[in-house]
Design brief:
Blueprint (H helix, E strand, L loop, with lengths): L1 E4 L13 H12 L4 E4 L2 H11 L1 H10 L5 H13 L1 H17 L9 H24 L6 H12 L4 E5 L11 H14 L3 E4 L11 H8 L3 E3 L6 H10 L10 E5 L2 E4 L30 E4 L2 E2 L20 E2 L2 H15 L3 E4 L6 H13 L6 E6 L8 H10 L1 E9 L3 H7 L5 H13 L3 E8 L6 H13 L6 E6 L7 H4 L6 E3 L5 E3 L5 H16 L20 H11 L1 E2 L1 H9 L7 E4 L2 E5 L2 E5 L18 E3 L1 H9 L6 H11 L6 H17 L3 E4 L7
Helix pairs in contact: 2-5, 5-6, 7-8, 11-12, 12-13, 20-23, 22-23
């Protein structure tokens, strides 16, 4: 009856399914509304890398004008020829998306190659859709076909932004238009951007974006009620958050939030391709609260997604949801999609997880560096409960800039929290922002200096530039921050770096960082990040497994704790006759920076080849050796095999040919 199209994220690759879509499926099904899902990213990735490669080849060859960088990329593709091009894409898709081999996620060349292809393909589609207004593409035809095949009476889309400049995604617009022309079925749109729409221009937006009904804000109650009214052929008058057209005019109802979040069903992920997202294991998102309890950060407008409110699930419902998702979907890894988990609530959730004896869970969350986290006991309880990585909103390493932003944090407090979090084996991911109005260049450099000083307790970071968001405090009251908004919606700051200076600073900073000229994160993992959107997957690896250095791995082996170490031997094995050679990945080809460059090649025995094959991070050293001993011919002594295996692993880790992780940090 209702077909929902999963958000088609064309700005990057996600490692998890769409939470909003899962919540809507659950809400509709609870009301007896049969709901089908047309998949988003997992569907179009397979199409691009497997099904539509011939069309992509033609589209690329027919592009007349491109920038220098893209022109070179096009030439490199053309040199391969179509058969090699198709084989390479098929192999990449299998290697990165399907195999789920942890070893593959440390192969930066393959990941970067996958990312570059994806970015280029998306730019090609955008060129044809936006510039040439060419909608006769297989990516469009396939989605239209999938939607019609589901035999819907109503169709729902997420209205996604295409860019920070608030232009809408052209792909889903064209799909909606084609569906409307072919079927005339009612089209409903919703999603987080709806809260930022200019209500005065809804009639134009309805027309241009090709939909019949608009749900602003939470759709968990609004969407089922709208479907019921349409089934009964009633005007959706009085249904909160719903806007619609009647007699050529847009009508709307009051905007309301859901106060009792506990009344909502668990998110339903049963129709998603959970194993075809970018990452070695399943990861599921859910929220413990909607909205932000702080709502003061001057650059941020996220709180408006929830109509400027903050509502929480009960602690009991949070724990029930974790337990349900774990059992229903065989999943241990969760991402809290809260705007920011505050300290008191983190303590309550952690305590409830421990009281309910929930084990083998790994949680990634967002938080502000609030004073309450400067508590060793709280961080210890959080880690024990399963919190393995926190994405902290650091924003700046300069106190004056933080005060300008109304962050409500102190540099000294941030420093202490990061150090204590590291001591409690929680990974620290820091987000920083350059170019906030009034920020001087020397203050931006203070942020870099802060990252350098705290490199030993920062496991990863991401950075961005300031964008003026209309519903942020700066956007609402620009004069307060010395900002002048121009007619074309750009802005000028009366003090600090200009936008041009910010862009120049930002690009230079990224260049220095990518050349590894500046050290901004811990030596714990010793990796460099390639420039690709799947970089969040590395955070997932850090948080869910707990990567450890070769030195620590050797210590574990020496203490007889081989069962705690899950080895990954990086490299490529080639066989020539009876000769088996391991070619380790060197510093230029891996995410991990080895302290000592490995030798160029290592000759392996058949026994060592077996150990290499099993060292993919799925089995512990203890389990690998046990398996090898069981499979060995009876003429070999188990004691001798065990000794040779241990010698091999000691040799590998002492030479830095591999890395290791453990799924339990408690012993070190």
């Amino acid at each position: 009856m209702l077909t929902l199209v999963e958000s088609i994220n064309i700005l990057g690759v996600s490692d998890r399914p769409d939470l909003g879509c899962a919540m809507l499926i659950a809400a509709c099904q609870e009301k007896g509304i049969k709901t089908n899902l047309v998949k988003g990213q997992t569907y179009y990735l397979k199409n691009m890398f497997i099904r539509d490669t011939e069309e992509l080849w033609d589209l690329i060859n027919n592009i007349k004008e491109e920038g220098p960088r893209k022109r070179e990329f096009k030439k490199s593709i053309q040199k391969k020829g179509i058969i090699q091009f198709q084989n390479e894409l098929r192999h990449l898709y299998q290697y990165v998306i399907v195999d789920k081999d942890p070893r593959h996620y440390f192969d930066s060349l393959k990941l970067l190659q996958f990312s570059n292809f994806l970015a280029y393909f998306l730019s090609v589609y955008q060129y044809y859709l936006r510039e040439l207004k060419h909608d006769n593409l297989k990516i469009v035809e396939r989605y239209v076909s999938e939607i019609i095949k589901s035999n819907p009476r109503y169709i729902g889309f997420s209205l996604g932004w295409y860019s920070y400049h608030r232009t809408f995604d052209p792909l889903t617009r064209i799909i909606r238009k084609r569906i409307k022309e072919m079927t005339g079925l009612p089209i409903i749109v919703g999603g987080s951007p709806t809260c930022f729409l200019d209500l005065k221009h809804l009639d134009k937006i309805f027309e241009e974006e090709c939909f019949d009904y608009l749900v602003i804000g939470a759709g968990d109650q609004a969407l089922p009620s709208l479907i019921e009214s349409l089934e009964e052929k009633r005007e959706p008058k009085g249904i909160a958050n719903v806007f619609y057209r009647k007699n050529g005019k847009v009508k709307g109802n009051d905007l309301k939030v859901i106060n009792d979040l506990d009344s909502l069903p668990y998110p339903d992920y049963s129709q998603f391709d959970l194993d075809l997202y970018l990452g070695p294991k399943r990861i599921l998102p859910f929220q413990t609260a909607r909205g932000c309890n702080w709502k003061k950060c001057a650059f941020c407008s996220h709180h408006m997604i929830y109509l400027d409110t903050h509502k929480t699930y009960s602690i009991e419902k949070v724990v029930e949801t974790i337990a349900h998702l774990k059992d229903a979907y065989n999943c241990s890894h969760f991402a809290f999609h809260d705007e920011g988990l505050y300290p008191k609530r983190a303590r309550m959730i952690s305590g409830a997880i421990l009281d309910n004896n929930l084990r083998d869970i790994y949680i990634y969350t967002y938080a502000r560096l609030a004073n309450g986290y400067n508590d060793n006991n709280l961080l210890h309880i959080m880690r024990k409960a399963g919190f393995t990585l926190v994405h902290w909103g650091l924003e700046s390493g300069c106190q004056r800039v933080l005060d300008l932003m109304d962050k409500g944090t102190r540099i000294s407090t941030a420093s202490q929290i990061l150090k204590k979090s590291t001591r409690n084996k929680i990974g620290n991911m820091c987000f920083v922002l350059f170019g906030f109005p009034g920020e001087m260049k020397k203050e931006a450099e203070e942020t870099i200096e802060f990252l350098k000083r705290h490199a030993d307790c920062i496991d990863d970071f991401s950075c961005g530039r300031f964008y003026l968001r209309p519903y942020s405090p700066v956007g609402i009251n620009p004069e307060k921050w010395g900002v002048e908004i121009k007619r074309n919606k750009t802005y000028m700051s009366k003090s600090g770096m200009s936008q041009e200076e910010t862009n120049s600073f930002y690009e230079r900073f990224l260049g220095e960082f990518n050349l590894n000229n500046i050290k901004l994160y811990s030596d714990k993992f010793k990796y460099i990040l390639p420039q690709y959107s799947g970089h969040r997957m590395l955070r997932f690896m850090n948080s869910s497994y707990g990567l450890i250095s070769n030195k620590v791995a050797l210590g574990y082996i020496g203490k007889g704790k081989a069962g705690s170490i899950f080895p990954i031997i990086l490299g490529e094995v080639k066989t020539s006759g009876n000769k088996i050679t391991l070619y380790p990945i060197d510093v230029c080809e891996t995410l991990f920076i080895n302290e000592n460059l490995p030798v160029k090649s290592v000759i392996l025995s058949h026994l060592e080849k077996g150990l290499y094959d099993r060292s993919k991070g799925r089995l512990s050293i203890e389990d690998i050796i046990s398996t090898v001993c069981k499979e060995a011919p009876s003429c070999y002594k188990r004691q001798d095999i065990h000794r040779k295996c241990m010698e091999f692993f000691n040799k590998i880790f002492s030479k830095n040919w591999g890395l290791a992780f453990t799924e339990s940090w408690k012993d070190y």
